[in-house]
Amino acid sequence: MKYTFKGGLHPSDGKEATENKSIITLAAPEEMVYPMVQHIGAPCTPCVAVGDTVTVGQKIGDSDSFVSAPVHSTVSGTVKAVEPRRHPNGRMVESIVVENDGLYTLHPDIHPYADTDKLTREEKISLVREAGVVGMGGACFPTFIKLNPPADKKIDVCIVNGAECEPYLTSDHRVMIESPVPVFEGLKIIMEILGVDKGYIGIEENKPEAIKTMRSLEKDYEGISVKVLKTKYPQGSEKHLIKALTGKEVPSGKLPADVGVVVNNVDTCTSVYNAVTRHQPLLSRIVTVSGSGINKPSNFRVPIGTPFEYVIQAAGGIKDETRKVVMGGPMMGVAQFDLSVPVVKGTSGILALTDRELKFKNTTPCIRCGKCVQRCPMNLMPLYLNAYAAAKDMAKCIEYNIMDCIECGICSYTCQSEQHPTQNIKLMKAQIAAARKQVK
Fold it and tell me: According to the model, what pLDDT value does residue 115 have?
């Protein structure tokens, strides 16, 4: 049986360029940049100053706010500057610049725990928080919050998101093939923290080697089973993964915990394992560097804080005909205009795209073909949301449940009139969120 959901589509995935490429570990460059915003929630405040010496794994930024996650140095060296630097989201963000001394001196707090079974639930959650672990699928929600749901939210099942449904991206795919044990061990720790005896690892059917590798370990982990998902975008969306694997539907405005489910990404599980067993912070992540504009498409393990241009050069550089560079996947990624920006916790991919993948056509009026409605995984009416958002009619957008949009990009992808409903919807959602914040 292949689990799935209603709606969605299967675009050309472009994964063949890197799906069989083993992960290469990159050494850090001479200068590293650490934005104080690498997560959903309050930004961190620097806790080091210019001239300070730092070590690998040392906390350099933190916040007193509940929804936040600390930032750590991924090299040893000297703090060169504390100043605004460009973030992959396009904004200038307070950042810590560290000059790498090349010694990689490890912070003394990083050491293996002899017996993790003796750690209490609260101690494990604290370790995950102090390690700065966030959702590695791109959402970057602080993981420790997921591991400590409100008392009235009884969690019944934990899901590992191994769908990786975005075209081109193969980082999770390679992790499941090359390092499956930490994924299982991380899920086991998460299940113990939440008091859950049932865990699912959902993998799309277009990853047969990953499915085979992960299933070979099922027998060693009681209560954990690998589920094969139909290859469809956005199968990796939290709500749709839950619907496919459990049949439960997360109500509008609610969270997975409201239906008794917690979902974590493949690499997030690995990070939880490292945090609890080694007291190791989130120091690196797997990044797929691909697209027809990349000379040598690759999968890299990249230290957080490494400039995009350095990573791209490691993949042979970009071709002259490159028209756009995107962080993340082509459906939900963010276009870049400055390649000096650093790899952050949410950088799952760096894509260099040429005319072969891009289409630049004139926009024409909506012909009401209904394709966006047919394919919308949230069962919304994108054509109306697009029109009302473009007209800045906030009331109508709310009436048509605009805040339920997951910004998957399918409506823009399928639009026969070459309109950009996702962009209009995102802008209106931001305006509504800002207006509601002012009211509070």
Answer: 82
